[in-house]
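To illustrate this point, what follows is a protein record of this kind.

___
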Amino acid sequence: MKTRILSAVVGIAAVVAGLLVAGPAQASGSYTGRAYVAGSGAMQTDWYDEGVVSVAVHRYSNATCLWQAVLWANGFLAKSEIDGIFGDRTDTATRAFQRANGLSADGSAGRQSWTAAGIISHTFDASGWVNGLYSGPEHAFYVRRSSAGNYQFNIGSGWTWASYNTRTCS
């Protein structure tokens, strides 16, 4: 009887210990495990470790919407096609962007594609936000980063959180 009680206590302790050290849920396909496009310090190097968006990963997401805005700013996608759905047109535009930047044209926007997206000019403000402008050869749009490091973007219809797990842009 004592052995069973001891085994039960040890088992419960192991479960509780596991719960105490478990971290927050990670975004599937994100290199950093964060649920948002995120960064710290200067914006110029923020996107080098962003997660994948493609027809197979984060296909329906605000992170995809941000990637589509990058494609629009670079002249590879029409603004009307920024909808947060990584479909055939976004795949084709991503491949064109990758070829133009000397990358393997696989249609999946991962580390190399986010890094090739380029430099964001930025300013800091007193409220803790870092405000930036993403400028492509064709268009520009505003981005900002919260004090927690999470990105928002604005392509003219208000601020949208760049989340891997939700899609509110359309």
Notes: The beta strands are 120-124, 130-135, 140-145, 151-154, 160-161. The mean pLDDT is 83. The domain at 43-161 is CATH 1.10.101.10 (Muramoyl-pentapeptide Carboxypeptidase; domain 1). The chain has four helices and five strands.
